[in-house]
Amino acid sequence: MVRRAVLAIVAAPFVMAVVMTLVDSYRRRGKRRSVSFPTAPPSTVPVGDGEVTTYTFGADLYDAMLEAIDGAQRQVLLETYIWKADEVGLRFKSALEAASERGVEVFVIYDAFANLVVSPRFKHFTPGIKVLRYPVYGAGWRPFDLRRYGRDHRKILVVDDNVGFVGGYNLGAAYATEWRDTHVRISGPGVWDLKRAFADFWNLNRRRRFRPSERPLLLETASTWEPTIRFHRNVPRLWVFPIRAMYLDAITRASRNIWMTTAYFLPDPDFADALMDAARRGVDVRVLIPAKSNHVVADWISRGYFSQLLDAGVKVLRYRDAMVHAKTATIDGTWTTVGTANIDRLSLTGNYEINVEIIEPGLAAALEEIFRVDESNSLELTKDEWEARDIYRRFTEFVLNPLRPLL
Predict the structure, then answer these.
(1) Torsions phi, psi of 176, nearest 5?
(2) Can you give the pTM of this predicted structure?
(3) C-alpha dist (Å) from residue 191 to 119, 152, 199
(4) Long-range contacts made by residues 22-30, C-beta under 8 angstroms, separation at least 24?
(5) Digit-coded pLDDT (tens) for 334-358
(6) Measured between alpha carbons, how far is 203 from 151 in angstroms, rounded to an integer?
(7) Which of 15, 50, 310, 347 is placed for a possible disulfide with 187 were both Cys, Cβ 3.0 to 4.6 Å?
């Protein structure tokens, strides 16, 4: 009886998570809804010797990305987590194949696990395109090597030496109009670092013996540094996770405001403490998350720190009517980051991720304006509202709480 009781206690969070996920998936099945939410138009800001353009609406971003691919003369590097086989996905595939046919060198990376439900026919490319399919299971004969279990959650496009794109957008029709996300387009010396990020991933994960098409990617890039732009890359294979350290360093230095947007908010204790300490010393700390995301279990588990955050003076804003998938933050009107990493364990200490850190007041002002637009479509969670939640919600949060370190 004791063993059964212990087993039931251990299994309860997992069983509840599975049931909640299945029920939520059933409710969403086959539903394509028309959504409307405010967005800021694309905005271009000079940064160093180049420019940075922000995109907050998928259709605008995809047009810019496809225009860049269509204008490619030498090389296209595309890396994505999810690539849907719908009209948007087909547009990108056709553009890449057309570029390859006119002599452009095309490299593609996608995560196989994230695209398990995508038709195998769609994932077949013309021979001229070099493809790295990041495997579903990458540990091989080393199943206990935790460094080999991270997913490739990055989203990168680099065209020639001219332009690079990075941010939260995957490729698909739903993301074009139904999700609120943020991406940036970078020109100037910063593009070279984005090319290096792509090449380093390719060379680290290519199948040397089994896939001759995955030859080494050798780049000739200038050694010039853009001092206002830095790319931070999480590389689980090398046990390197600088994005979390980047956030903590910026948060602890904040003196005026911290405005953060994230799709999934499951911080570790030190990260949560840093935000609360900032709020207690008078910093305007705001965290914007979806009122309802595409992962119902993550929504419930994210509530674990709400009481402490609200007590410390952190504002929790819940985005309405659409999934907000952006991973951005701006601090003190100077510091900004945009990228692929959520504020959770999987992103900060698990997956391959990339965030760009930019020190530029003009871009910080643009991100603050984007945040204000998103805030206008959000509801602030008040202390009274949180304390008034019913016993069912408190019980569900309690049962699911042990899963927090896993997500």
Answers:
(1) -70, -35
(2) 0.91
(3) 32, 20, 12
(4) 24/296
(5) 999 999 999 999 899 999 999 999 9
(6) 16
(7) 50
DSSP percent split of the chain into helix, strand, coil, nearest 5: 40, 25, 35
Longest dimension (CA), the chain: 70
**pLDDT at 210 exceeding the cut of 60:** no
**Pair 175, 58: CB distance under 8 Å:** yes
Q: What are the pLDDT digits (tens) for 24-75?
A: 566 666 665 667 899 999 999 999 889 999 999 999 999 999 999 999 999 9
Nearest-angstrom CA–CA distance, 28 and 31: 6
Burial class (CB in 10 A: 0-12, 13-18, 19+), 312: middle
Closest alpha carbon to 133 in 218, 217, 76, 202: 202
Identify the CA nearest to 95 among candidates 76, 81, 79. 76
Q: Are 112 and 136 in contact (CB under 8 A)?
A: yes
Sign for the pseudo-dihedral over CA of 228, 327, 154, 186: negative
Cα-only R_g, the chain: 21
Query: Which tokens in the block code for residue 172?
Result: 């698909």
d(CA 380, CA 364) in angstroms, rounded, equals 23
Percentage of the chain surpassing pLDDT 70? Answer: 86
Q: Which domains does the chain have, with CATH numbers?
A: 43-228 (3.30.870.10), 238-406 (3.30.870.10)
Distance between CA 177 and CA 322 in Å, rounded?
A: 10
